[in-house]
Structures are given as structure tokens and as C-alpha cells.
Amino acid sequence: MTNVEKISSDFIRIIINEDLKTNKYNGRVYTRFPPEPNGYLHIGHAKSICLNFGIAEEYNGKCNLRFDDTNPIKEGEEYVKSIIDDVRWLGFDWEDRLFFASDYFSKMYSYAVDLIKAGKAYVDDQNAYEISYNRGTVNKPGKNSPYRDRSVEENLELFESMKNDEFKDGEKVLRAKIDNSHPNMNMRDPVIYRILHAIHHRTKDKWCIYPMYDWAHGIEDSIEKITHSICTLEFENHRPLYDWFLKELNIYRPQQIEFARLNLTYTVMSKRMLLELVNNDIVNGWDDPRLPTIKGMKRRGFSPSSIRDFCRRIGIAKVNSNIPIEFLEYCVREDLNKTAPRFMGILNPLKITIENYSNDLIEYMDVINNPEDPNSGIRKVPFSKSIYIEQDDFMENPIKKFYRLSPGGEVRLVNAYFLKCNDVIKEDDIVKELICTIDHDTKGGNSPDGRKVKSTIHWVSLKNAINADVRLYSRLFTIENPSGKKGQDYKEFLNPNSLKILKNCKIEPAVSKLKKFDRFQFLRKGYFCIDPDTTDKNLVINQTVELRDRWLKIKKKGEPS
Ligand code: ATP
Ligand code: MG
């Protein structure tokens, strides 16, 4: 990993600048984000979205949202809908430029006819196995198909019959006639059309032949007059093929530019693996907050701006790398620190009774909503005779350097009073309750006599507390690169403790006014958000990130250079 936090003019922008200088595309910058609707989007897609839409924005150009829907078997409306949702949620706008490869099927068909007429494509009767076998290997040239020299007329007739539903799946294919001993395997007479009796989610049963991805993709870009067709590295050796098609068809040709995929530590990003995790109920749906999907990150409480910020800061590169997930969390934390209101919530409650406080009194303490945001205002937080504090803010036999509450010790209850512990009530050796007193002269949390306490802890009034389920998350996998271990299934590295649910957490009442997905900080605990499972009766809260930052430490250690 070399490029974290480097914000510079990257190699793609350098190419675009050069093209603008030479007026290659008459000053136009036109990009697209081309997802295949066969899964939900993840953080890797976010990188591509930010790059394509970002470049269009920066250069006053345009970016299309285009679905590459050429494989009806794996694609569907559910995915189209979720992808549209996610790109919009990330904050990008394609205006009226929502396109589908399937809208171009007729055009792609007629281009294939043109290629046949030019003697550059033929119908092959070999089956998939024979085609693959005869293609040869990297070290061995392929063998020409016995059907390669069919006449143009015969090819035209057969291709039309393919379209007219006269053959079974796999009986015939259309192949480009290029070179079966080409060092680039992609150029060895690639299949460009296949017979597939499948219902397409948009064109229904109109077609029983479908274009292959490699045939379709370059044509889509060409039809839309894309200038810079940005894709990931695995397509680098497909570029000669795309260029060959467009040259033979004599149609507009965009410039393809490849960049490295984003990979994140402690997670998986392959659609196949994500599908498996979801379909086998290993996680709770596509929006499980442990997944790197956009829907998962939204539910986890990541803001769109923090994701955009992350994508910008990691930059782009030509070599694949694994970005530490801690850096993503760092970006999320930075954003939430500025924007998230603070509340008090007790995750593991310990009851405190204040002996010297009136039974029925409720005082309302003034608390600043967000010390980082001068416009965030103040709220009133109720205080009463019985309160909750965190269990781990108390130690009956304090170890060295434990400055929080202990018998005889004094702490500050934030924005409330100094509090002293006088007695410990136990059941079966477990601490059940503390009997305490407050110093009435310290209201607001300040001592008039200059007396100092070493610790300030948070609290929630028992009478006013609302109950909540709090879902705590840790890494979904136990190792950095779960899909990179040869011979081992990534599922072997699932973390059995990635989700922990705390019941009956005690939350200050103001949190009940928040809406689903609202993000906030629990003082001293971290960032959280309201889970959409929340009902009128049951508040459900997701942990977003801890307060503690691990990124700066990792960076300091010099792990990533
Ligand atoms: P597949 O093609 O195997 O179904 P995919 O992850 O490439 O999966 P697409 O729907 O084709 O999914 O992706 C849409 C766009 O997002 C493509 O341009 C692709 O290059 C880009 N993209 C996908 N994964 C990443 C990633 N991890 N990092 C950066 N860009 C990505
Ligand atoms: Mg792809």
C-alpha cells in the first residue's frame, strides 16, 4: 500500500489533462459507471463511482449510470433498484442519463451482422468444451474451428436463425474471426453471441441470443460517446479486443484506462462471496452492518461524505493493494466528530442511588450537543436520585491508575455533580448497586473550592432512561486477507463474535426523538446510529465505530508506507 492519504493529480487525471490539451475529444470529458445488476454495490464500487462521477464534476463533463445487463441468468430488478438507490445515496446525479445495455440489443445485433458481412465473424457449431479446448493455452496456439470458413451468406443465415429461436442453448455461437494463435488469449476468436433461452428482466422473452460482455461493453461506451472508459486492471488485456471491435465496425472509440481495484483488510469484496454470505444467512441480509456493501455501511452509520472522503484520499493506483479498514474507520470518525450530536447512553448499566438527593426531584442539566460544532445548541438532560453508570466505571478494589469510581472515591458526573461512593450492595458477590452522595455545591460539574477529581464519567437518570438494544460489531473476519489464503475457504476465517447484542441498555430520553439511520455519539463510547429495526416500542442502536482510533497508530508504526 503506497497511496493512502495522497491527494494528488493521479495518472487518470494526467491523461485527461493531456487529452484536453490536444483536443482529442473536442474538449469533452464523458465517463460512466457501468454496474452489472447481479449483486449489491460495495465500497469497491463506491471507489469507481466517486472516480467516474467525480471526474465528470471536476472537468464540467458528464457521467452516465449504465447497467451492463447482458446476462439475464444472474441479473434482476432488485439489483437495479438497489444500485440506483445507492449511487444516489452516495450523492451523485446522472440527471436523465440512466441507460441499459439491453436498450442497445438491436444495435449490437446489427453491428454483429456488419461484422459477419465484413467476413470478420462466423457461426461456430462447436460446443463450449470444444471451443475452450481448441483455444490452446498461453504457450500453445489454438486450433481453428472447422466452421471458421463458412461463407458470409451462410453465416448471415445461421445468425438470423439463432436469433429466430431455431436452435437450442449452446448449439451454436457467433465468434469474431481474429487470430487463434494470438499471444493475447482474448484475441483468439472470442465468442460474441450465445444462445440463451432466458427471460431478461427488461426485454423479457424478446431475445434468445445475448451478446457476450466483451462484445457489449465497448459498443455501449461507443454508443454513449464516452471519452474515458475507466475500468479495473483485469480488463487491461481486453482492451486490444475492444479496440479491434470498434475499429472493424468503424465506430467511435473511447479511451479505456485501467486502475487497481480497491481491496480492504478483514473483509471480502467478491460478489460471489458476498452473495454466499447473504444467501446462506451467515449475515443478516445485504444491509448487514458488518458487510462492506453500501447498504451495510449506511446501516452501520457511515455517512456518504465520509465514504466519498475515503475514496478521494486513497487515490488511485496501477497496482492492486489492500487498504487497512482502519483508514476507512478513521475517515468515518473524522466526519462524525464534526457532525454527530452527543448523547449519553449506558451500555452495561450499574445502578446508583444518591442518598442525599430528594426522592421526587428531577433537575434538568444544560448539556452542549456537540462541542465541535458551535451551532449545535444545548439540551436539557434530566438528573434524579437514581442513575445508571457503566459497570466498568466502577471497581470495588481499584487497580493502580484506576481513577474512576471506587469505594470512598470521588468522580465528576459530566455536566451534573461530583459523586462519592459510600457503599456497595452485592448479591452473590456481584455488585448490584452503589450507594453514593453528591456534593450539592458542584452542580454543573464544577467545584467551587477548586477541589479536583481525576475522572469524569457519564450517567443516565433511571426514571427517564429509555431501554435499547445495542448491536456491537467487530471485524467479520479474523485475518486481514480472508480470501487470499491458498487452499483455504474464506469462510474458515469468519469471526464468530462479529455481532454482540446488548439488551436493556439505558439511554437518555432525547435519543427517542432521532429518526432511523440518524448518527450520533455516545459520550466516551463511540459513534452509533438508529437501526431501521427500531419500532415505537423497541429502540435498536447500531455501533458505528469506537472512539478509539487505530489508524494513526498503524500509520505511525509504519506498516503502510
Ligand atoms: P463482476 O463483474 O465480477 O460481476 P464487479 O465487482 O466487477 O463484478 P461490476 O458490476 O462489473 O462488478 O462493477 C461495476 C464497476 O465497478 C466496474 O467498472 C468495476 O470495474 C468497478 N469495480 C468493481 N469492483 C471494484 C473494486 N473493488 N474497486 C474499484 N472498482 C471496482
Ligand atoms: Mg465487472
Give the tally of structural domains.
3
What is the mean predicted local confidence, pLDDT? 96
CATH superfamily (homologous) name of the largest domain: HUPs
Report strand order across the widest sheet: 12-25-26-27-23-24-13
Structure characterization notes:
The protein is of the alpha/beta class and 561 residues long. It has three domains: 3-259, HUPs (Rossmann fold), CATH 3.40.50; 271-341 and 468-557, Ribosomal Protein L25, Chain P; 345-458, Beta Barrel (Ribosomal Protein L25, Chain P). The protein is built from 13 helices and 27 strands. Mean pLDDT is 96; it is low at 1-7. Bound molecules: adenosine-5'-triphosphate and magnesium ion. Adenosine-5'-triphosphate (ATP) binds next to helix 2 and strand 8. Residues 34-36, 38, 44-45, 47-48, 231-232, 261-262, 269, 271 line the site of adenosine-5'-triphosphate (ATP).
List the helices and strands and how they pair.
Layout: H1 11-21, E1 30-33, H2 43-58, E2 62-67, H3 77-89, E3 98-100, H4 105-117, E4 121-124, H5 128-134, H6 152-163, E5 173-176, E6 191-195, E7 209-211, H7 213-223, E8 228-232, H8 239-249, E9 255-259, E10 262-264, H9 271-279, H10 294-300, H11 304-314, E11 321-323, H12 325-339, E12 342-343, E13 345-346, E14 349-354, E15 363-368, E16 378-383, E17 386-390, E18 410-413, E19 418-427, E20 430-439, E21 456-457, E22 460-461, E23 466-473, E24 499-507, E25 519-522, E26 526-530, E27 539-546, H13 551-557
Parallel strand pairs: 1-2, 2-3, 8-9, 10-11, 12-25, 14-20, 18-21, 23-27
Antiparallel strand pairs: 4-5, 5-6, 6-7, 13-24, 14-17, 15-16, 17-22, 18-19, 19-20, 23-24, 25-26, 26-27
Bound molecules: adenosine-5'-triphosphate (ATP) and magnesium ion.
